[in-house]
Amino acid sequence: AAVGLIWAGRNAHEFLAISRPVAASVLVVEGWLPDYAVAFAIEEFERGDYGLLITSGGPIERGAFLSEYGSHAALTAATLVRMGMDPARVVAAPADAALRNRTWASTVAVRDLLADKGMRAAAINVVSLGAHARRSLAVYR
Question: How many CB atoms lie within 10 A of CB 77?
Answer without folding.
Answer: 27
